[in-house]
Every structure is written in structure tokens, then in C-alpha cells.
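FORM 7B: Structural annotation worksheet

SECTION A. Query
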Amino acid sequence: MGEQIESSWKKQLQTEIEQPYFKELTDFVQQEYATTTCYPAEKEIFAAFDWSNFDSTKVVIIGQDPYHGPKQANGLCFSVQDTIPHPPSLINIFKEIATDINVPYPKSGNLERWAKQGVLLLNATLTVRAHEAGSHQKKGWETFTDAVIQKISDEKEGIVFLLWGGFAKKKTKLIDVTKHHVLTSGHPSPLSANRGYWFGNKHFSGTNAILTSMGKDPIKW
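SECTION B. Predicted structure
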């Protein structure tokens, strides 16, 4: 499974890929895909790395699990395939963008357009069994994706990390906050957003202000 990872990331993560747990994870995932319906499609498991290579990554958004409904997940956290109805959290993300930076609500929920600009859309768990949320948690994915965050923190500077909700905020411990920027808020899910923990966080204008201050191109959200 490690051979699927984009080359610049694979170079950074080679030691991790060679760990025994990753072999066990690979065996588990291959067995699951061979015997049950899983998401995203096998070729999209590492899509987040394909679109935003190690050198170009400048923003990191951390999700938890891929969507577990048909034709939704495409390997990028919070993102769905073109023409698929937007899930509730994604709707709230787009609403916040609209009010924060006055960008019209988009037709497509496919966030490849962000990833191509250097936004790493990383789920903590990269696969899931159909209709069974969390079914591939605690199988090794979290160890791998934590290593990704740690590697970004160690090897890069000035990355903007967007940590939404309690789960994502726990990743702060992996990040050197003296050389990176960490923006936190509630999760965009309706439960959190309707309690006032999401809307008005201005993370999208805030991210662009940080990037611009460092001489980097802002993200076209």
C-alpha cells in the first residue's frame, strides 16, 4: 500500500512505511477491500497526498473519518465527489466561507480545488467500511497520520493548521507552535455549529492573512 503514496511524501515517510504496524494495516485494508465495500476507492486512499505534495503544502485541515455513504468520499477530508449532495458539515464550511470572505456558495463539494493550491485535507483514518462509521479506526491509520503531522511540523515552517473540533484540537501536541500557525474552533457539524462554536471563526480570511504576511499566495476558497 505504501507504493501508492506520492513520491515526495513517500520520501519523507519511508521510515514509517517500513514499520511493522504499517504492514499490518496494509494487510487489514487489503482484506477489507477484498471482502466488503469500503470507501474511498482504493486508488483514492492517499489522494490527499497526490494533490498537495510535501513541498507545496502550506495549509493542513484535519478530519476524522471518510464519508461512509456511496460515492461520497474521494480521499480528501470534508470533500465529496462532484454532483454529490453536500453533507451537513461541508454545508456549514461553505456558509462560513461565504460570510467570511464573501465568496458565493459553490455548486460542487469537491475540494480538489483547495488541495491543488497546497491545502492538505487529511483524515486521521483514511478508509472506512460502507455504512459503518469509525469501522477502520484503531487499526494503524491514526499512527500513520499522526506521523504525517509530526513530519510536517518538524521539516517545514509557517504551516497553517486548521483544527476543528475536539478530536482535531488534540493534534496540537504534534505541532511545534513556535514555528507554525494553529487556528482552532468548534467542528462545522450542525451540533457544534448550532451551539455557536463554528460560525464566525473567520478561519478562511485568517489563513489568507497569515499566508500573505509570509509572502505566500492566499488560497482561493
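SECTION C. Observations
Residues 68 and 130 are 5 Å apart (CA to CA). The chain has a mean pLDDT of 97.

SECTION D. Sign-off
Analyst initials: ____
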